[in-house]
Specification:
The protein has about 190 residues and is an alpha+beta fold. It has 4 helices and 6 strands, in the order αββββαββαα.
Length: about 190
């Protein structure tokens, strides 16, 4: 394998892990309500389970209210059930053509729980980064054993790969710290 391709593949895998982590963090509620809190809730649409964002328009009405307007009003009850069964802890209010989801202010206890969730997601991200590192290092060792690269190339790639791993871990820490700071805002 080409040396540069090994680093490029590692960077792509790390980027995927960080993007997934950022998506997970965006689904954790803070003081600011975001449509990302509800857009991936799975709802029953004519016998198929689909993400809410594919069957409805999501709008933030007030700082703590999300309006969900399905393109087909016949699935309003299904959307309401999906939201009630999610771990958001809110009950949607039905109107004729839309649902209104009002998010109460966060209590200190709930903030602490959400901080723990954010830290747990960061640990999951770090595990993924570690798996990427192990795969990268095994590939380098395998290439060395098969005489596809020299010891110098292996050392160089290990150093460059470790730089990327460290950068990814730092990015994960930064993302988590931003979310925690957001959760601590009152």
């Amino acid at each position: 394998m080409d040396d540069n391709m090994a680093i490029v593949n590692l960077k792509e895998n790390l980027k995927k892990s960080l993007n997934f982590f950022a998506e997970k963090l965006s689904s954790i509620r803070s003081n600011r309500v975001s449509t990302s809190l509800v857009e991936n809730i799975m709802v029953d649409s004519y016998g198929s389970m689909v993400p809410l964002k594919t069957v409805a328009n999501l709008v933030i009405q007030l700082p703590n209210v999300i309006i969900i307007e399905p393109w087909d009003p016949n699935i309003l009850n299904s959307i309401a059930k999906g939201i009630e069964s999610s771990n958001l802890g809110v009950s949607p209010q039905k109107d004729v053509k839309f649902l209104r989801v009002i998010f109460p202010s966060l209590t200190q206890e709930r903030r602490d729980q959400l901080i723990k969730v954010a830290n747990s997601e960061k640990e999951n991200c770090r595990i993924e980064i570690k798996k990427n590192r192990e795969t990268f290092m095994k590939k380098i060792q395998n290439d060395l054993n098969n005489k596809l690269m020299s010891e110098d190339d292996k050392s160089y790639l290990e150093k460059e790969g470790q730089k990327e791993i460290d950068k990814a871990n730092d990015n994960a820490d930064d993302l988590c710290q931003k979310k925690i700071a957001e959760l601590k805002e009152i």
